[in-house]
Amino acid sequence: MDxxxxxxxxxxxxxxxxxxxxxxxxxxxxxxxxxxxxxxxxHVKFDSEKGSFTSFAYSYIxxxxxxxxxxxxxxxxxxxxxxxxxxxxxxxxxxxxxxELLLSYCTTLTDNQKKWVIAHSIHMLSIKEIAFCEGVSxxxxxxxRKGAKERIRQAFINQTFE
Length: 162
Description:
Elements: H1 3-21, H2 28-45, H3 53-88, H4 96-104, H5 111-121, H6 127-134, H7 138-160
Helix pairs in contact: 1-2, 1-3, 2-3, 5-7, 6-7
């Protein structure tokens, strides 16, 4: 029998106990899998000179499951923020003339730059939220913003001197 299989049998109940202690009732199997991966990593990283494996494994597994919980909460909150922003879109007081004026400055922009202008100006989304929506990095959205600002500035300057 593989050494990790023995560890798995021995500490299986510990993973279940940690999940129960943290009062996790949704996605139990996902958190169990996270705990199992953490147990394996603890098994690989354990140094017997630094203490007992049981306490090391417990804190390692608990920490990893808590990190996963925090990540899930962040993802859920982002989804809620984006849904609320999209729902409020119809309730915005931006009249047709203002919208037309805003879009008139977007004629020279790329598609991604237009996405930034609309998401930022109309939906009031942050860079991180736009990046999450579009599935890109925040740095990419910052580049869209920089390019959009430069082009809009140039378009404004050209209109003023005509």
